[in-house]
Specification:
With 149 residues, chain A is mainly alpha-helical. Chain A contains four helices and no strands. The model of chain A has no long low-confidence stretch (mean pLDDT 91). Classes of the chains: A mainly alpha (149), B alpha/beta (502).
């Protein structure tokens, strides 16, 4: 399912992205205690993102909208980032990995927000909101990185 | 892509729900088959006349107390029902895909629509209010109160097993009536699940009953003198029989929503990209098995010179065929799938018969869905791929009869007026849509077209829960429609009181 067309496939991808990201940040929090609270907050936010997206989808989908024909040309592999933390990985490398994750996630949510404009307004709005949150995280991570280099 | 987990793991044995009890039927048991996998997923009884009589008796017995239950208390039962439906949203949706075959997006859409009916009916303390006027004469006041009537029967079709009974049931019980539902025996599981939630929500025994079965149950409902009204959704011949014979003889109120042959007009100024996307959902969504599906696509050449019209026609048709040919067909629990199977083998055979007739009558088959290509390794038994004909005229069988499958008939109309005449030459009047950027054409269309549901740049004209589900000509029999305020009026009598105190 490299290029999904259905709303269901997009939402499932988003849910997994949020689950995996939360798990990644929980692991980061265990490994790099100096910014533990920040990473735990990101993990918690990921859970809220998932609830927001699932709820928005379930509350607005109807049989009458073009849910099976909403998305085109989205290569999901473009939005997948490496999330495996290895033992002994330097903090700066871990932060760079997190920045890339946020960059790709933000791009994903922005792209699906653009393509879902024809659906009910709450759907692109939810995607945009998560894209903004992901972008904010990226800025925060960059500032953490610059503070240690 | 991986298949979403199936919520039905073992073959279910369905029972009737009568007077708040789960009751085994003495009738014959038949299989409920998942049309994508061809596996049996449930056993459903074909109940007897005695069993429908018992259900009506239970409903009649529950009525006096239920009608005296304050509307706010009745609404609270519906609030609880809604919450339970939200909790089980995903399970309910996947069950629809398993028993009907539609895609998971379509099933979730159906679940949402059904829940919306319950939501609207929770407003019953306001919706059911009457009205009054003081001093209609010296010292005399007059007012209208709405009162429930008694027991209603609900006979839904197979194509929306969760939602269609809910076009009526929440409004019926909210207004203080009691109901007996006979789900389609082809896909009765959704209603069994609804009843589980009805029980948990605290509806008193006898208010909401379900009797599984076929013609015997339907006849039992129509003949029963204690059933005050029938809500039916299905084919036109049956709808006609129900209102004029069955219910006519026993004096029942009727909502009978029937067949359709919906036209979609594409004007030269339409936004083509979005029009085609809407058309895919309209013609092929739910595998064409809905009364609001697009059937005839009319490319209109109003205001164009001959060669311009030819070019425009070709552009629309090519875009349509291209999009339709790329639709991914398979098991609806695969999230990459855009169209599922037909409900059963006989329905596929019926649609295939229409395709053969179309060829025989001279229409040009541009996309042959009989060449089945699926996502995943599933038996082809109930599957067809999207099909499209060109050079169809309104007098051809495929241009005038309801196919109820994924078949598009593409037609040409030189002018807007000619296109409207085509619509009006058809006996059905369920829905019609126009795709245009012109307010003038949109207004002309909505003003003049004799169909109950009009779409302006909308492919599936499905009214929301707070609007009536309309329909005209051979698509609707009755006076008041399902959903919203009209449903409230259908399920109540207006009693006028004129009062003076000496």
């Amino acid at each position: 399912m490299e290029e999904p067309t259905t709303a269901s496939a997009i939402i499932s991808f988003a849910e997994k992205l949020e689950d995996d990201s939360s798990e990644f940040y929980e692991e980061l929090a265990e490994m790099y205690l100096q910014d533990r609270e920040t990473f735990l907050a990101f993990a918690e936010e990921g859970k809220k993102n998932k609830v927001l997206l699932t709820r928005t989808y379930q509350e607005t989908i109807t049989d009458a909208i073009e849910a099976c024909f909403s998305f085109r040309g989205l290569k999901l592999s473009n939005y997948l980032a490496e999330m495996t933390l290895t033992e002994g990985m330097s903090y700066s490398n871990a932060l760079k990995m997190a920045i890339e994750l946020e960059e790709k996630a933000s791009n994903f949510y922005s792209d699906v927000a653009e393509q879902s404009k024809s659906l009910l307004a709450t759907i692109p709005r939810a995607f945009r909101k998560v894209a903004e949150r992901r972008n904010d995280r990226k800025l925060k991570l960059k500032s953490l990185l610059s503070s240690i280099s | 892509m991986a298949i979403l987990e199936e919520p039905i793991k073992e073959v279910l044995t369905l029972k009737n729900y009568i007077g708040g009890e789960w009751a085994e039927s003495e009738g014959e048991i038949i299989d409920v088959v998942n049309p994508a996998t061809c596996k049996v997923i449930a056993k459903v009884p074909i109940s007897t006349k005695d069993e429908i009589n018992m259900a009506v008796e239970a409903a009649k017995e529950a009525f006096p107390e239920w009608r005296r239950t304050p509307p706010l208390a009745r609404a609270r039962c519906l609030f609880r029902l809604k919450e339970l439906m939200e909790e089980r949203f995903e399970e309910l949706s996947r069950i629809q895909t398993m028993e009907h075959g539609k895609t998971i997006d379509e099933s979730r859409g159906e679940t949402r629509r059904g829940i919306e009916m319950v939501e609207v009916a929770t407003g019953i303390p306001s919706l059911m209010m009457g009205y009054n006027l003081e001093d209609v004469a010296a010292g005399i006041d007059e007012y209208v109160i709405r009162q429930p009537i008694g027991v209603f029967g609900i006979i839904p079709p197979f194509n929306f097993p969760f939602m269609v009974p809910l076009w009526f049931a929440p409004y019926a019980v909210a207004t203080g009536n009691c109901i007996v539902i006979k789900p389609s025996s082809e896909d009765p599981i959704s209603q069994a699940k609804v009843v589980e939630m009805v029980e948990e929500a605290g509806f008193p025994p006898g208010v909401w009953n379900v009797v599984n079965g076929g013609r015997t149950v339907v006849s039992g409902m129509l003949d029963h003198l204690d059933i005050e009204g029938i809500c039916f959704v299905g084919s036109t011949p049956v709808a006609r029989d129900i209102i004029y014979r069955g219910c006519g003889e026993t004096g029942k109120k009727v909502i009978a929503q029937a067949g359709a042959k919906n036209f979609l007009l594409v004007m030269p100024d339409a936004d083509l990209e979005r029009t085609i996307a809407a058309c895919m959902t309209s013609f092929y969504g739910n595998t064409g098995q809905r009364c609001l599906s697009g059937a005839n696509l009319v490319v209109v050449g109003e205001g164009l010179k001959e060669h311009e019209y030819d070019a425009f026609y070709r552009k629309v048709v090519d875009a349509f065929i291209d999009a339709a040919s790329r639709i991914r067909v398979g098991y609806g629990l695969d999230e990459s799938v855009q169209m599922g199977p037909l409900r059963d083998k006989s329905k596929k055979e019926r649609v295939t018969g229409f395709i053969e007739t179309g060829i025989e009558e001279g229409a040009r088959l541009r996309l042959d869905g009989r060449n089945v290509k699926l996502v995943g390794d599933w038996p082809h038994t109930c599957f067809l791929n999207p099909t499209a004909f060109e050079d169809v005229t309104p007098d051809m069988t495929i241009g005038k009869e309801e196919i109820f499958g994924p078949v598009a008939s593409i037609m040409r109309a030189r002018s807007f007026g000619e296109a409207i005449e085509m619509i009006h030459s058809n006996p059905y009047g369920n829905a019609a849509s126009i795709f245009t950027s012109s307010g003038k054409w949109a207004r002309e269309f909505q003003y003049g077209v004799q169909c109950g549901n009009i779409g302006i740049n909308i492919g599936i004209v499905a009214p929301m829960a707070f609007f009536p589900f309309s329909g005209m000509k051979d698509s609707f029999f009755g006076t008041l429609h399902g959903q919203g305020q009209e449903a409230i009026r259908f399920f109540t009598e207006s009693k006028v009181v004129i009062q003076r105190w000496f």
